[in-house]
Amino acid sequence: ASPLARRMALEKGIALAQIKGTGPSGRITKEDVNSFKSVSSGAVVGADMAVSSFSDTPLSSMRKTIAKRLSESMFSAPHFYLHSSVNVSKLLKVRAALNAGSEQKVSINDLIVKAVASSIRKFPDVNVSYLEKEGVLRKYNIIDISVAVATPNGLLTPVVRNVGALGLTDISKQVKSLSSRARDGKLKPEEYTGGTFTISNMGMMGIDEFTAIVGDF
To answer: Where does CATH 4.10.320.10 sit in the chain?
Structure first.
């Protein structure tokens, strides 16, 4: 939902989950909020509750591992969040120009991976880990970027190795290959562990911003 639609829904006391979005990728707009009409569902809710008030879904071993590691990370690793807005109009034009004459199409995510690698090269102190047992900060000389991929079995973070030495075309090829094999369950463990920086992109789902958990994979 757009920020304006969120505020309008809050003022009207409407839950966003009740509204069907008509914007790009199902995004909720102010028009959707204005045209929303509440439908009484008391009888349906009552009938449902008479059957069962909840249902349990067994987790796969991978999802159990993901839940365990993210829970541990949330409470053991200091988290802090920074937010900023960026005008990417010129970037979108560059992408369109690159893709116009190339069989290997570059995605927004590919450009983000490249931009992050360039930023890390400029500010290498970002590319570090704290090793509690040794009491040291380990600075990595190679930029290995993990790209979060949703799979049927859970979230995986395949790693594009040594991104600083790759061009956009190579980055695009590797991201597509890794993402495809991640969804098909064909990645080797060493292909989704050991990244030094992780990118999670939910923009294609109409998300304006979100707060991630530091992954320990």
So the answer is: 3-51
pLDDT at 45 over 60: no
Q: Which two tokens stand for residue 105?
A: 């199409």
In one letter, which amino acid is 57? T
Strands 128-131 and 149-151: unpaired
The whole-number average pLDDT for the span 106-114 is 94
* Residue ranges matching CATH 3.30.559.10 in the chain: 61-205
- CATH code assigned to 3-51: 4.10.320.10
pLDDT at 48 over 70: no
Three state DSSP letters for 95-140? HHHHHHCCCCCCCHHHHHHHHHHHHHHHCHHHCEEEECCCCEEEEC
Q: CA torsion 120→121→122→125, rounded to 10°?
A: 60
Using left for φ > 0, alpha for ψ between -120 and 50, and beta otherwise, residue 213 falls in beta
The pLDDT value recorded for residue 41 is 46
Residue 38 scores a pLDDT above 70: no
Q: Is the pLDDT of residue 30 over 60?
A: yes
* CATH for the stretch 61-205: 3.30.559.10
* Cα dihedral sign, 213-128-170-188: negative
